[in-house]
Write a structure and sequence with these properties.
Blueprint (H helix, E strand, L loop, with lengths): L6 H4 L5 E5 L2 E4 H15 L5 E4 L4 H13 L3 E4 L5 H11 L3 E4 L13 E4 L18 E6 L9 E5 H15 L6 E4 L6 H14 L2 E4 L5 H9 L4 E4 L1 H10 L4 H9 L2 E4 L6 H11 L3 E7 L3 E5 L13 E2 L4 E5 L15 E6 L6 E2 L3 H7 L6 E9 L5 E6 L4 E4 L2 E4 H9 L4 E11 L3 E10 L8 H11 L8 E4 L20
Parallel strand pairs: 1-10, 3-4, 3-5, 5-6, 9-10, 9-11, 11-12, 12-13, 24-25
Antiparallel strand pairs: 1-2, 7-8, 8-18, 13-14, 14-15, 16-17, 17-19, 19-20, 21-22, 23-24
Protein name: Acyl-CoA synthetase
GO molecular function, one term: medium-chain fatty acid-CoA ligase activity
Organism: Streptomyces brasiliensis
Amino acid sequence: MSSLFPALTGGPGERVALRFGERSLTYADLAAAAGAVAARVRDAGRVAVWATPEPETAVAVVGALLAGVAAVPLNPRSGEKELAHILADSAPTLVLAAPGAGLPAALAGLERVGVDTQGTGGVPEDRTSEGDPALIVYTSGTTGPPKGAVISRRAVAATLDALADAWQWTGDDVLVHGLPLFHVHGLVLGILGPLRRGGSVRHLGRFDTAGVARELNDGATMLFGVPTMYHRIAEALPDDPGLAKALGRARLLVSGSAALPVHDHERITAATGQRVIERYGMTETLMNTSVRADGEARAGTVGVPLPGVELRLVEEDGTVLAAYDGETVGEIQVRGPNLFTEYLNRPDATAAAFTADGWFRTGDMAVREPDGYVRIVGRKATDLIKSGGYKIGAGEIENALLEHPGVREAAVTGEPDADLGERIVAWIVPVDPESPPSLEELADHVARRLAPHKRPRVVRLLDVLPRNDMGKIMKRALGGA
């Protein structure tokens, strides 16, 4: 197949490809360093990558891809049990890591290969095929041990090229982000995306609003983040006119990995004149939909299907919704070249994930507008609440709660109720812990904005909501979820 990174051999070699703090690599530097990694791992089978937020991680992954070897990104914050499971399941022959990185005992049995960003090598001839595995990325494992999603080279190329179409993404763009590099968002979109376009990426190492402002003022054109990051930006904007001005310079602000509350959308737009666009994807599907750069940015939606992606909504009995009205909730199913190949060593789970005609069951619930825009209302397992004969998505209630001035953070779950089937439970982090809003106040607030049957029946107060590395609320860690 054609190269995933044509700029490594046919592009401007002196253009900066990667920058992490004070450390940067041009395309010529990256080609030499990744070429050296490729020569080292060519016959290695699968390789693990200790995915710290450093240039060595990018060099390691690109080197493995140049060699046609599947890379298994490892989260440096994984617990011993999870890490042991991933290593046993994926059986890598070695681990690529930055020379100074401390590795846990679980990796002691693997040969360690230090990644040299000053390495000297050549880009090998591409002898791969589209269906060859590029990455094995492990899911979060909320219902059991993490599963390894095998992501093909075709899927990586298809998703990045579809996003280039939707976002008008070119080699002139400079992306800034502070996302972790063991996940699809930070690694595939945030590192491989700019490299496939022949553009540049500046990684913050650790996200902070000052770093975002600095890079946007210094020529960065795109920002990727998760809702937690945009929430921090929204909170900082009233006291930081410089940040507002910097964000106003960006060509594109993109949020993903979870829904960005409408309240934060509105605060950022009011302060900067910019609209944050959202996209929707999963480990198993890479990217499915996005608000287009040349389309209408509607807060609370994830846009329309990307080029090449088919999307449908399906009712519980398997009936495909024939028409979309913006109200009827169904499970999202997708089909296209962006899909993963299989769950490694799990033919049972792979078979269960697909319909007989090849549609992937995402487990995400959504409504779709007549013009194709998709609005996600939550996960089927944790966010679809069946109360009083209604199917209710937790996401829209959370957005309504966040509009209340006394609510800092909010999560909504369902719990068994003898009368209603399930009752709506609001988990609230109040702005003022000494004077939190009452149940009656919040219930009335939601009923006025949405509908009476969507009001919470129970309110539980927390100091903080449990979140994972990507900022997603871990609802299974909330009692009653």
